[in-house]
Design goal:
This protein has a 3-stranded antiparallel sheet with strand order 1-3-2. Strands 4-5 form a two-stranded antiparallel sheet. The chain has a two-stranded antiparallel sheet with strand order 6-7. Helix 2 crosses helix 4 and helix 5 packs antiparallel against helix 6. By secondary structure, it is of the alpha+beta class. The N and C termini lie far apart (85 Å). The longest helix is centred in the C-terminal third of the chain and has 36 residues.
């Protein structure tokens, strides 16, 4: 069982740096190489040091080509500093996180200044409004306008039919009763009424007016 103790050595990193790094999108390789760099610099109370690729390999277990590519990316993002030439190279950590660059879907761009709140331990970018956790934005105005419009059109059609149908139906029935009531017995009148009503029901489409025409947008004219 592993039992790490501070007495056996520790790497001192400022909390502000930890919070700033927590806000960065680092790949798995970048994180591993960065921790190896911390161990070889801050772990020995140094700001920078000459670190061969073989030492990065030993600490990370990565292949040489992966380490070289990852160091190149960290230097390009200004998270790691590099000085010297091919024969003598020193690596260090850029603790001024305002100089770091963040990677987006569109590529690498300069990061906006990061505000680190020591009390609340929250890292935010200026210009990006933060919202409380769990608060959802309200739906845009007019989301249900189409559905509401369709309901209004159906209601208007229903009103149109009801308004047109009732006077014509009463008028037809009145004329029908007057015409068949002359010289007929009550039984015959009832029978004739039932026949006429059945006929009118079958011809309802002829009695009711057609629905109002609409243009392509659905408005009536």
């Amino acid at each position: 069982m592993a039992e790490p103790q501070l007495e056996n050595g520790f790497t001192s990193i400022a909390n502000e740096i930890v919070e700033a790094l927590a806000h960065q999108n680092l790949s798995a390789y970048e994180s591993r190489v960065l921790w190896a760099l911390f161990r070889k610099t801050y772990g020995w109370h140094k700001k920078e040091d000459r670190i061969p690729i073989t030492q990065f390999q030993k600490l990370t277990g990565l292949k040489r080509r992966h380490i070289s590519r990852t160091l190149f990316e960290l230097v390009a993002r200004k998270i790691v500093t590099k000085r010297g030439d091919a024969h003598f190279i020193t690596y260090g950590f850029q603790k001024d996180y305002l100089l770091w660059k963040i990677v987006t879907k569109r590529g690498t761009r300069r990061s906006s200044p990061i505000r680190v709140h020591s009390k609340t331990e929250i890292v935010t970018h200026p210009g990006t409004p933060s919202s409380p956790i769990g608060v959802t934005q309200s739906s845009p105005i007019g989301v249900h306008s189409k559905e509401k419009k369709e309901k209004e059109l159906k209601k208007e059609e229903s009103t149109h039919f009801a308004f047109k149908e009732e006077p014509q139906t009463r008028e037809r029935v009145s004329e029908m009763v007057t015409s068949i009531a002359k010289g007929m017995s009550p039984k015959r009148i009832k029978q004739s009424l039932e026949e006429r009503i059945a006929f009118l029901n079958s011809q309802k489409a002829m009695i009711l007016p057609h629905p109002p025409d609409r243009d392509e947008q659905g408005s009536m004219f």
